[in-house]
Specification:
The protein has 13 helices and 12 strands. The protein is of the alpha/beta class. The strands form 3 sheets. The protein has a 7-stranded mixed beta sheet with strand order 2-8-7-6-5-3-4, with helices on both faces.
C-alpha cells in the first residue's frame, strides 16, 4: 500500500487520548481529566428535541443551518455583545466549534501560510492549521504572566507569510482570561499586518470576574475576525455536536462552501435543541456556572494547600497547577498519580511544550469528587 498522507503522519495523536486510553482500562478512577460538563443538558432542551422528533423533523436543513437558529444566534450576539451579524449570510451553524475551527482554517489558509498560535492551547488548534496546509507558529506563555500571551511576542512572530492569529479565551487548559488591553493590542497587530483573527470563544459564558471580552467588539476587529462559539460547554451539550461561526459574508461564504460539500448541515435535532437552549436555557446554564465558580475556589485552595502552586483561573473549568518542584515530568506525575492514587489528570505538555511542568485538572465534576481527588493528590505529593 502507498503511504498515507505525510501531513496526517506528521501529527501525533492527541496527548489527552493517549492518556485516557490507559484510564479506560482501569476501575474506580477519580477523573479530573475530561473537559466536559458533568451536568446533563437542561430538560427543556432535551424535551424540545424529543417533541420535534415526534413530529418527524428528521430531514436536512439549509446548509447554513435553520433560519430560526441563525436568527436566534444573531439576536443573542446583538443583545449580549452589541454585534450585528445578519442571519442570512453572516452566521453558519457548524458541527461544534471543532468543525468551525477546521472550516475557518481551510477557508483562509493557502499552502505554507503561517498562523500564530499562543500556547498552551486546546489540542486541536495546531493540527487544524496543519491539516489545512498551514504552519502553526507557536508563541508560548507562562505561569509567571498568568498564562496571558504577550502581544510583543506575537508581534515578533509575524512574518511575510503570517495569515492569521488564532486565540481561544477563556483558555483551555489554563483558564486564563487576558486583560482587555492585551486583546486590543493583539487586534492592533492584526490590523497593522492585515491578518485574520480566529477567536474560539466557547467558554465565553464561563467567565467569573466581570464580563467576557468578545474579540470582534474590539476596535478594528469585526471585519477580520472569525468568531467561533458553541453549545457544548455553556449548556452542557457536548454530545449534541453543535456550534456556529460568525464573520463577514465573504468569510462565511468560503466556510460554507467547504461545509456544504463535506457536512451538508449540522444535525437537525441538535439545531432544534440549540434553538431551545438560546431561548430558554440560560437559567440552568447560569446555575451550572455558579457551581463551577464555587468549585473553582475549592480546587484552587485545595491544590495550593496540597503543595501544587495554582493560579486562580478567570474562566472555563480548568486549573493548571505547577508540578515543577516535584522533579517529575508532567507525564511521570500523571502516570504515577493514576497508578498510585487512581486520580486522572492531564499532562500539561498535551497542550504545547510550554505546558510541561504543569497538569490540567478539570473541575467540571462534583465537589465530593474534587475534595476526594485533592486528598489523594496531597497524599501523593507528600510522598514525593
Ligand atoms: C477551547 C475549546 N475549543 C473547542 C472545543 C470543542 O468544542 P465542540 O464540542 O463545540 O466541538 C473544546 C472542547 O473541549 C475546547 O475546549
Amino acid at each position: 500500500m502507498k503511504a498515507i498522507s505525510h501531513v496526517v503522519q506528521s501529527i501525533p495523536p492527541s496527548g489527552i487520548r493517549r492518556f485516557f486510553d490507559i484510564v479506560s482500562t482501569m476501575h474506580d478512577v477519580l477523573s479530573l481529566g475530561v473537559g466536559e460538563p458533568d451536568f446533563d443538558t437542561p430538560w427543556c432542551v432535551r424535551e424540545a428535541c424529543i417533541y420535534s422528533l415526534e413530529r418527524g423533523h428528521t430531514h436536512y436543513t439549509s446548509n447554513y443551518g435553520t433560519i430560526e437558529l441563525r436568527r436566534a444566534i444573531s439576536q443573542y450576539l446583538a443583545l449580549s455583545e452589541g454585534l450585528e451579524y445578519h442571519p442570512e449570510n453572516q452566521i453558519l451553524v457548524t458541527v461544534g466549534v471543532s468543525e468551525g475551527m477546521d472550516l475557518a482554517m481551510r477557508a483562509i489558509i493557502n499552502p505554507g501560510d503561517e498562523v500564530i498560535v499562543p500556547e498552551p492551547c486546546f489540542v486541536s488548534y495546531k493540527p487544524c492549521v496543519m491539516f489545512a496546509g498551514g504552519n502553526p507558529v507557536v508563541v508560548p506563555s507562562y505561569a509567571e504572566d498568568g498564562f496571558a500571551v504577550k502581544p510583543q511576542e506575537i508581534r515578533a512572530a509575524v512574518t511575510s507569510k503570517t495569515k492569521a492569529i488564532l486565540i481561544g479565551y477563556p483558555s483551555n487548559p489554563t483558564g486564563a482570561v487576558p486583560a482587555r488591553e492585551t486583546l486590543e493590542e493583539i487586534v492592533r497587530i492584526a490590523c497593522e499586518h492585515d491578518l485574520y483573527i480566529v477567536s474560539d470563544e466557547i467558554y465565553a459564558r464561563l467567565t467569573y470576574n466581570g464580563k467576557h471580552t468578545c474579540v470582534p467588539t474590539l476596535p478594528g476587529a469585526y471585519e477580520r475576525t472569525i468568531l467561533l462559539n458553541g453549545f457544548s460547554k455553556a449548556y452542557a451539550m457536548t454530545g449534541w455536536r453543535i456550534g456556529y461561526a460568525a464573520s463577514s459574508p465573504e468569510i462565511i461564504e468560503a466556510m460554507m462552501k467547504i461545509h456544504q460539500y463535506t457536512m451538508m448541515c449540522a444535525s437537525t435535532m441538535a439545531q432544534v435543541a440549540a434553538l431551545e437552549a438560546l431561548r430558554n436555557g440560560d437559567r440552568e446554564s447560569d446555575e451550572m456556572i455558579e457551581q463551577y465558580n464555587h468549585r473553582r475556589r475549592v480546587i484552587v485552595k485545595g491544590l495550593n494547600d496540597a503543595g501544587l502552586p495554582c493560579l486562580m483561573p478567570g474562566g472555563a473549568f480548568y486549573v493548571f497547577p505547577s508540578i515543577k518542584h516535584t522533579g517529575l515530568s508532567s507525564d511521570e506525575f500523571c502516570e504515577r498519580l493514576l497508578f498510585e492514587e487512581k486520580v486522572a489528570v492531564v499532562p500539561g505538555n498535551a497542550f504545547g511544550e510550554c505546558g510541561e511542568g504543569h497538569i490540567r485538572c478539570s473541575y467540571a465534576t462534583s465537589l465530593d469528587k474534587i475534595n476526594l481527588a485533592i486528598e489523594r493528590i496531597a497524599r501523593f505529593v507528600s510522598r514525593l
